[in-house]
Amino acid sequence: MNVLVVGRGGREHALCYKFYQDESVSKVFCAPGNAGIAAHAECIEIEETDQQKLVEFAKKNDIALTVIGPEQPLAEGLTDLFLAEGLKVFGPTQKASAIEGSKAFAKELMEKYSIPTAGYETFTSFREASDYIKKKGAPIVIKADGLAAGKGVVVAMTEADALAAAEDMLEHNRFGASSAKIVVEDFLDGEEFSFMCLVNGESIVPLALAQDHKRAYDNDEGPNTGGMGAYSPVAHLPEHTEKKAMNEIIKPVVQAMIQEDNPFTGVLYAGLILTEDGPKVIEFNARFGDPETQVVLHRMESDLAQLLLNLLEGKTEDVKWSDDTVVGVVIASKGYPDAYEKGHSVQQILDTNAFFYHAGTRFKETEVVSDGGRILLAAGSGSSVESARQHVYSALETTTAEQFFYRKDIGHKALKRS
């Protein structure tokens, strides 16, 4: 079969590489792709948001399955158009993608159906938000309601930081329309982990757990980013964690969407935290997580394309996984997640002994150069977190590119608990 992946980042590279390996797939296309994706798929010069051209391409090229990577085309209704044209697509409708596109929608849904999450209030007025923050105190969490590329969350450890974040979003339009409304949440203490599930209505196929590292710098310091690294599996979590999350969070929210006449098809990403009271929801995303997808799919031995097609027909099956641990370290442009430069050569990094998923790269003539904040993810495998870390970090130690940086402590929580 021919498969089309929509997107240009590291998550899409992981999808293309997996489909490239799948026996059921004869040809992989990616729109628009990047320099690394070009090694595993034919890159098509169509933007993720050019809905009509994507549909026309899928029809002309006998695409059996389209997988939509980024959140923006989902929020703009790309799935709806594909479905209207009778095309097989894996991704939620515009209405269902609101579980990611609006933090307030997700919180209201969880409140209505008693799905465990942090207490919260929503605000459009800075004065009212300020009064609430002062009443609650810190630590406290401030979130932009809409899409903000993974950067719209501030975990404020002081009241002053919380007030500054709320003012930045509501008064200074930090994320434009996405922060015209904010959600102010209680701070939850515990171990964070990511649980992605492939969903079609009531049918659910769980993927392996992963743990992301959101802060820019070592020791979980600095601003929130789209993710600076991840690893899978998360072996140090209690054995019952996944089962409990499935029964108390995933299944109830899938049923809640059906009850609301808004059934979900696609990847339901649950960003969770294991508290003393059990797992609770930090956030839901409506697509594959990035960088979790890179480390999770790197371990998958099942044929993903066939798995998704079967799921679209309501058939579920167990996923086969490698026993290896995979650690992924993001290489980012200096200055990320704030201002950064593009166009620097990444060849010296690519020449090291690691497997690279490309996130923000392009060709400049024959050379691969940076084209984003997060540029690459270096993946290392091993029989444990320690050996996988040794694999990836020993490779990266040989590079000295000053225009880039990476965290040196991805997987450190697992080492402390192993």
CATH superfamily of the largest domain: ATP-grasp fold, B domain
Using the CA coordinates, give the radius of gyration.
20 Å
User: What structural category characterises the helix and strand content?
Assistant: alpha+beta
Shape: globular
The main pleated sheet reads as: 6 strands, antiparallel
Distance between the termini: 43 Å
Q: Do you know the CATH topology of the largest domain?
A: D-amino Acid Aminotransferase, Chain A, domain 1
Whole-number tally of structural domains: 4
CATH class of the largest domain: Alpha Beta
Mean pLDDT: 95
Number of strands: 23
Examine the secondary-structure arrangement and name the CATH architecture of the largest domain: 2-Layer Sandwich
Are there runs of 5+ residues with pLDDT below 50, and where? Answer: none
Helicity range: 25-40%
- Can you count the helices? 14
Beta-strand fraction estimate:
25-35%
Pfam families: GARS_A, GARS_C, GARS_N
Organism: Jeotgalibacillus haloalkalitolerans
Pathway: Purine metabolism; IMP biosynthesis via de novo pathway; N(1)-(5-phospho-D-ribosyl)glycinamide from 5-phospho-alpha-D-ribose 1-diphosphate: step 2/2
Domain ATP-grasp: 107-313
Explain how this protein is built.
- The protein folds into 4 domains: 2-93, Rossmann fold; 125-180, ATP-grasp fold, A domain (Dna Ligase, domain 1, 2-Layer Sandwich), CATH 3.30.1490.20; 191-312, 2-Layer Sandwich (D-amino Acid Aminotransferase, Chain A, domain 1), CATH 3.30.470.20; 325-417, Phosphoribosylglycinamide synthetase, C-terminal domain (Glycinamide Ribonucleotide Synthetase, Chain A, domain 4).
- The protein contains 14 helices and 23 strands.
- The protein has helices at 10-21, 51-60, 71-75, 78-84, 98-101, 103-112, 126-136, 159-170, 241-259, 292-299, 304-312, 347-350, 385-396, 412-417, and strands at residues 2-7, 27-32, 42-43, 63-68, 89-90, 120-123, 140-144, 153-156, 182-186, 191-200, 203-206, 211-212, 215-217, 221-224, 229-232, 265-275, 278-285, 325-333, 355-358, 361-364, 367-370, 374-382, 404-405.
- Strand 13 and strand 14 form a beta hairpin.
- The longest helix has 19 residues, at 241-259.
- The mean pLDDT is 95.
- It catalyses: 5-phospho-beta-D-ribosylamine + glycine + ATP = N(1)-(5-phospho-beta-D-ribosyl)glycinamide + ADP + phosphate + H(+).
